[in-house]
Amino acid sequence: MRILRALIAPWRNIDLKAPLRPAFFSRLPRLALAGVCSVLALAAHAACPPSAIASLGKPGAAVGQWNAADRGLLWRADRDGRTAWLYGTIHLGRAEWVRPGPTVQKALEQSDALALELDTRDQVAMRALTQPADPAVVARLLSGERAQRLARQREAACVAPETTAGLQPILQVMALTGLVARVDGLYPEFGADEALAVSARNNGKPVFALESPAAQLKMLTGDSEAEEAEQIDAALAELESGELRTQMKELADVWARGDVDKLGRYPEWCNCVNTPAERRLMKRLLDDRNPGLADGIERMHAGGKRVFAAVGALHMVGPQGLPALLAARGFTVSAVPLSAQPPVAVPTAPAPKAAARGGRNVKGAAKGSTAKSGARSAGNAKPAQRSTSAAKSKQRR
């Protein structure tokens, strides 16, 4: 299913240097936000894109010279005298995107805890993905022409065969989809989620997971081997056609400029909901997960924590997006304008103050070129419809 599968989970930055060991997932070290390690054992030939750490050696890539700019989508949600923040992320990025912008950083500083889809530093939880796959299942799902197709894509990605051989079949393909945009300077290691986790931990803030690796793996494999095989074939087709790379770059650009309107129309341009199987997967990856994500955020908020929740941006749009779901639960939700331009002399304006405690309306940002992208929390809903669509989302469930 096109780009959605590749970007839905932040655990694609898999450490394949030593498969199936506890330190299976790449991490950003505390030394510097961009001081990351390569996640793959790359073949040594000129056709291989540079690793994430090697890409920092390019002219102008010095971390200290980057002027952090706000990117992505941000909302504040007020209830019970406390503020929660909803930040739509992307699970891969450019080196210069690693440092959070001033508005995002300020919101994180005003929070008590960071909530992510997964905490990739939780080695105990991550073991659900490091367990060796059943050899019989691997043999059934990755044989014949399918195995040859996978081998060709591994070679194209400069990944040694032994680095993925023990993984669940769908993970063997997913590990490659996360690498396809390296040639465009987009790396899983520079994803917004990991950067925020580093920033939070460096400032003594706890990091919580809203989901489990086991649940995300189940979501990808489906309910049968036939479903998993279908997902593998679709992912291989996307890699072979080159369309995945094109769409990854487009989605990354949409995210970077905070274009919530285009993101809300994602099904119209993603070429990813053309078949019943694709539509089922879209529902499973987004709509079916959002209530659980909202539950986790609300539970932490009710426990007295000011939560900064950072999840994939596609979870934020539409009538079933997190801003709409929280509005239906009594939060006053307001879009916070972000600008992708680095700050010059004037600091970014503070987020608008909630008008009423416990309100249900999702408020748009102020008019203007930088605020337009954050003006709708319900994706396709018009400004006048936001309150209605958010309030009705609970009833539809």
What does this structure look like?
- It is a single chain.
- With 397 residues, this protein is an alpha/beta fold.
- Strand 1 (73-79) and strand 2 (82-89) form a beta hairpin.
- It has one domain.
- The protein has 17 helices and 7 strands.
- The protein is globular.
- It is 40% helix and 9% strand.
- It has a 7-stranded mixed beta sheet with strand order 4-3-5-2-1-6-7, sandwiched between helices.
- Helix 7 runs parallel beside helix 10 (225-241) and helix 16 (322-328) packs across helix 17 (386-396).
- The two termini are 25 Å apart.
- The longest helix has 17 residues, at 225-241.
Give the helices and strands, then pairings.
Layout: H1 2-7, H2 52-55, E1 73-79, E2 82-89, H3 102-109, E3 113-116, H4 123-130, H5 135-141, H6 144-156, H7 169-177, H8 192-202, E4 207-209, H9 213-221, H10 225-241, H11 243-256, H12 260-264, H13 266-269, H14 276-287, H15 290-302, E5 307-312, H16 322-328, E6 332-336, E7 362-363, H17 386-396
Parallel strand pairs: 2-5, 3-4, 3-5, 6-7
Antiparallel strand pairs: 1-2, 1-6
Helix pairs in contact: 6-10, 7-10, 16-17
Short summary of the structure?
The protein has 397 residues and is of the alpha/beta class. The chain has helices at 2-7, 52-55, 102-109, 123-130, 135-141, 144-156, 169-177, 192-202, 213-221, 225-241, 243-256, 260-264, 266-269, 276-287, 290-302, 322-328, 386-396, and strands spanning 73-79, 82-89, 113-116, 207-209, 307-312, 332-336, 362-363. Strand 1 and strand 2 (82-89) form a beta hairpin.
